[in-house]
Amino acid sequence: MMRALLCLIPLLLLSACAGNAPPPPEGFAVYEKSNGNESRAVTPEGVTWRVRTEDHKPQADLSFWQAALRKRMSEAGYRVVDSLQFQSSGKPGFAWEFAAPQGPTDFSFLVGVVPDGSILRIVEVAGPLVDFAKYRARVVAQLQKLVQ
Fold first, then answer.
1. What span, in angstroms and rounded, lies between the C-alpha atoms of 12 and 111?
2. Are strands 48-55 and 38-42 parallel, antiparallel or unpaired?
């Protein structure tokens, strides 16, 4: 279990390869050319959207990734605000929404995963809490389109 958690850290923090990333939610503009492996976008307020995939190693079910992600982020100082279960093209997905102070501003950070065979699809959305709230419904709706 500990080895799997150690594998999760670079998974969450490093850019990686992915495939067929969906377009960002409405109100987000692509700011780096999507390379088919990763898609990045941002709102005028600075809320960021990133979708990518990693090799699904270790191969694990969704409940493992839920627990590992919550543990990793809680240990990094984020507090859980909400959790979301969703279906993306018939595949089960899960997202945690976290919050953490950054100076005088609270930030929201949503991280979602969809195990898809040999690939783990990951979405990360972050920004100031007030600005994130404006786009939250659009982000949640777009989670259902991670698998194409």
1. 9
2. antiparallel
| Gap between the Cα atoms of 71 and 64, Å rounded | 11
Alpha helices by DSSP H, 14-100: 62-75
pLDDT digits (tens, 9 = 90+) for 107-119: 999 999 999 889 8
Show Cβ contacts of residue 15 under 8 Å, excluding neighbours closer than 6 positions: 38, 52
- Going by C-beta distance under 8 Å and a sequence separation of 6 or more, which residues neighbour residue 80? 70, 73, 74, 96, 97, 98
In this structure, which CATH number among 3.60.15.10, 1.10.10.10, 3.90.1150.10, 3.40.1000.10 belongs to the domain 2-143?
3.40.1000.10
C-beta separation of 91 from 118 below 8 A? no
Query: pLDDT digits over 61-108, tens only?
Result: 999 999 999 999 999 999 999 999 998 888 899 999 999 988 888 999
